[in-house]
Each structure stands twice: as C-alpha cells, then as structure tokens.
Amino acid sequence: MAAPESDASAVDALLAAAVEALGGSERTGQIRMAEAVGQALADQDHLLVQAGTGTGKSLAYLVPSLLHDQRVVVATATLALQHQLVERDIPRLVEAVKGRGLDTSFAVLKGRSNYACLHRIREGVPDDQGTLQIDVPRGEMATKVLELRAWAEEQAQDDGTGERDFAPRHTDREWRQVSVTHRDCLGAAKCPFGQECFAERAREKAQKSHLIVTNHSLLAIDAIEGIPMIPDYDAVVIDEAHELVARVTQAATDELNSFDVERAARRSRRYVEGDEAEDLADAADTLKVAMIEASPGRFETLPADLHDALVLVRDAARAALSAYPKKQGGKDDNADAGLQQAKGSVQDVFAIAERMAANTEHDVLWMSEGGDRAPSRLHVAPLQVWGPMRDKLLAEKTVVFTSATLKLGGDFDAVAGSLGLKPGERDAEERTEEVLPWRGLDVGSPFDYAKQGILYVARHLPPPGRDGLGPAQFDEIVELIDAADGRTLGLFSSRRAAEAAAEVVRQRLPHLTTLAQGDAQLPELAAQFVNDPHTVLFGTLSLWQGLDVPGDTCQLVLIDRIPFPRPDDPLMSARQRAADKAGGNGFMQVAATHAALLLAQGTGRLIRTTTDRGVVAVLDPRLATARYGGFLKASLPPMWPTTDPGIVRQALKRLSETAGAG
Length: 662
Fold this sequence. Notes:
The protein is an alpha/beta fold. The chain has 26 helices and 22 strands. The chain is globular. The chain starts with a helix and ends with a helix.
C-alpha cells in the first residue's frame, strides 16, 4: 500500500526544510522512517521502526506528527529523552517550519505527583491521623522542604511549570512533602488554589496542543487502566519502545504490607465514628502474622492463612469506606483534604487486597524478603500485558513504535508479539475488529559497525557460575582494560560482580581510575568517566541503557555474562512457565528475548557517532557455544566478530595509542 504522492511529498518537503533550517544533512534512513510514519498515520496501521543511533528518529516522527490532522501523543521511557524533545527538538522544529500554516502547539504532560501541590504547601500535610500539619518536618528534611516550598511559590508567581525536574535537588521523601498523587488531589473545582494549580495548568495547555509529550507510565494509566490522564488523541508515537512492556507492567503492579493497612486504619480514626477503623487495624495485625508465616517468593497457590488475611483486610477496608461521612461540616467530603487523603489510603488498601485475594490466573503474586529497614511486601503484577495493550490501546488508536532495538533474532515478531500485535497480521490489507495490520521497518544505521566495532566473545573462558566471577574472568578483565589503558565501561549482571571486578582492577591497575556504581551519583560518575580517558566505570542495569558516552573515552564495553533474568524472578519465571503451558518455548519467548534486548542495549553503548571505534567484549562463552547464541547475536549490531583474545588486545592497544596521540 503506497502512500498517496501528496502525503509522501508533504512529509519529504517539511523534513527537508527542517533539516536545512537546523543545519543538518539528509539521511536516507530518516527520510524512509518519516515517510513510513506518515503513511501509518494516514492508513491507521500500526508500525514498528527500528532506527539505529544517529538516524535522527525524533525528527522523523515529529514531522509527520505535525502534518497529521489530529492530536498525536509522543511517549518516552526516560526523562532524558523527554527533556530533549521538549527543550530542544520540538522548539527547533517549530521555529524551522514557522509560517507554513501548521498547528505547532505542544505541551508536556506528567503524572500529578510530578508537580508541586500548592494546597499541600499552603494548607499542610496530613499526619498519620489525617490532620493537616503546616509545620516543617524536623531534622535534616526541614531546610530542604522549606527550599522546595519557596521554589514552588516562586514558580506560581512567575507562571512556571512547578515540575519536579526543575526543582532544587531533593529526595523522594522530601518531594512527597510538597506533592500529591491523583488519589489525594481535591480537584480543581474544590481546591482553593485550583486556578493556580501546576498540574491543572499543564492539562489545560495539553487540551489546546496538537502534540503532547508524556511518558510510558502515564500512557499506560490512561489507555490501559482507563483512568483519564491525557486529552483525547488519535495516534501515539512510542519512542524507546523496547522499554514499553516493562513500564506498562510496572504501572499495573501493586504492593501491600501490614504497615500500609495499619496506617490507613490510623488515619481513619479521625473520621470514622464506629469500630470500622479498629477492625481495619485488627486486620493489619492478622496480615502481619500471615506474612511472617509465609515463605518469600512466588505463590503458585496462595497459602490459606494469607488468603484469609487478605479477605479480612479487603472486607474491613470496604466497611471503613462505607463508614466515612458523606458530608462534613456542611461541605462535600471531598473538600476536606485530610479526609479525602485518609479515605484515599483506605481505597488503595481495599483495591489491592481485593486484587490479591482474587489471585486470578491473569496475575502473579509474590512476597519479597524483608530486611532490617525494608519489611516484607506482597506484590501483584499482570502475567502478561500484550492482551490489555491490544484491546485498550492498539484497537483504539494508531500506534508507531520506534527504538534502536526492536528486531530480535533478526525479526520483529518477538517484540511485536509482546506488544499485542500478531505475526500473522503483518502487512494485512484491511483493519477489522479482529485484525490489526502492522508493518515492520528497519531503516538501518549511519554507522559502519563492521569497520567501527569488534564483537569479541571470550570462548575460552569457563561458563559463568552461581558464585560470580572467578580468577579466569578477573584475569581477562584486567588484560583487556590494560590494553585499552582505561576507556572501559563495564556492564555487570549484579552490583556484587561490579564491585568485585572494580576492587581487582584497582589493585592490579592502580595507575587507572576505577569507579563503581554507587561511589557517587550517576551524573557525577558519567562526567568523570567522560573527562578522564584513563577511567574505568563499572555498573549494572541503569548503565546498560542510560549512558551516552560518544568519543574515545569509551573504547571497550565489557559484559560479564548474558543478562538472562534471575531464575527466581517471580514474574519472569511465571511468564516463562505460562508460555510453556501454552505450547510455546518459554525460555526463548521470555528469558532469551529479555536477554537479547538488554544485550543489544548494552552493546549499543559503544558506537555512538560515525567516528567511534572500539570493542564489545562478552565474557560469557555461551554466546558462541549455546544453541540460543545465534538468536542473541542476530539481535546485536553487525560488528566484526572474533573469539581470539590476542587480536582484541592488539586492536585495543592501537586504539589507545591513537587516542593518546590525538
């Protein structure tokens, strides 16, 4: 189905004008992607676009989104990309296409807790009994909370956004003193500060905008959970789409323990005159005992005592909700912030306990192991999210998924299936209630991976064991880093492995600076890594996906093992088992797919520009020897492969000498 010439021509012309105005150069992959996005929006077909780093994919979906005649939502996984879009890419594009008669209005929309709440700041924070307290918390928090309050008042006075991302540095606990969740909010009509409300003003701006930039979690709450958070829209572009399943799962995951129930009971005592609050407190005690007697891990069958305790909590919470007054002092109960927030905590307890007690086949329920500071918690998460995504998002909207990592094993089918699209629907001619057509497009990369990068698999090493890294792996790590003279990003499967490797490198290569995640905040570590080429940085998951270090500061990416999910991961093991029961291959569909995504993301840390050169070294021989190794390697950028450590060390020495000379 070719797009009408006029549509493709309009996209090409606007893209060319934007690229020229921004001082860029024409990129074939960017043009192909922009045309495909324009066609998908026009035909109302879903689209998966794999676009390598450096393609210019933001512009490739923003241009056809501006040309689309209805509102388009752009959803990202990370704050970094959201900021890039809102503060750089979209404003520059709007300036470049000025005078063409297009609706270039745009807004950013986040969850309510991302904005300071003027009611909470001016009227106070409910204590455990629900009483509003305007006093500043004692101790170390006091100065920071006062600073946040003053900042929020300045934002209100200067018509600022009141967004958390622009607030003075703070912790989660400090931010909770100046913000509320959607459950705790009084609503603009009942709040005395509704006209000034930062969150309401953001929503009003979004209502008037053609483009709305938001995040995966808010999109999931709006589209899948059915809680209206985003103004009506026609289509959505999901960037960083490889993260979507995890973010939707996270948004649909609930937690509960006895302290949550006890706190809800405490806050209810001020408003409930009967015994209902005390009954809820008793139910909290029962839940506490049942959790102590239960074993941590996933529950294939919910223990009878724990089930009974959850039912008791559910029923006590329902009774407490019924006992809340409908009116207080002649006012609607929702006008009392303390009452509404206390009632909201009971509603949360009721909803979560009800879901956990039901323990349906669509959910996975488990208990995490507690410690001195973090007590055990019950968790419930959806077994799969592709069904809700298909029924509540894909069936209603046109969706464009894009990322540098969407083809796994050389094909789109694995990722498409996880998102709710069926392989048999690919390139279908007609959209019906039963069939959702989709296309997959790989626009390639501007990088010549075969010349810029080497994929080295240390085939001679023993397979990784349960006890972590051994002497052979440590020797390999030291020899590779020594050859690279620093310039190394180490991606490890656990914090313990990263710290152990860092300690060995510090002892054996003391002339280099070796940093481990946790030594300082990530931005500080990244800055030091970029500024000093003789630095080694070791870390875990957030470095696999969130670090962008172009240039010769990073010429070696070390990966200690294939990043399969832990065998005791409750959700992943349940999904793998469900795939097996359905007649599929659970290991390949769940564990190998998870590993392939992470491995591709980690490998992608190496080549970030057309001039970057380097080595990705995987210390897990299974990538070369196991049957699934081919699937994993087919998911990676097409670098030049080798298993010869001598060749790799020589290449690293030449690169470090060249970088040093430069």
